[in-house]
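name: query_chain
kind: protein
chains: 1
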Amino acid sequence: MANQNFNIQQMDYFQLKGAVEKIIEAHKETYLDSMWIGIVGSNKNKWRLYKSNGFEKDSYYGWILVSTSVNSNGYELYQKIQKLINNYPELEIKIVSRQL
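structure:
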């Protein structure tokens, strides 16, 4: 049962990553609001799970699934990604942003 649950979570991570990358590609920049946005693992004890699902290790943020920086409409992109992440509460991830 645990192995089956692991496979379901693995599919969810890949689906989420693909959906976020589509949102980033479709993002239109119109006004100045530069921002760095990243999706990170929120449970440091699950590093093995994050590593096996394609997260990259960052010394400051921990395990990052996807990150991007935009020159404009940063908060608008942040809201779109946050809405998508709210559909995956079982993955124990969070969105992090920094104003550039």
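note: Residues 23 and 81 are 7 Å apart (CA to CA).
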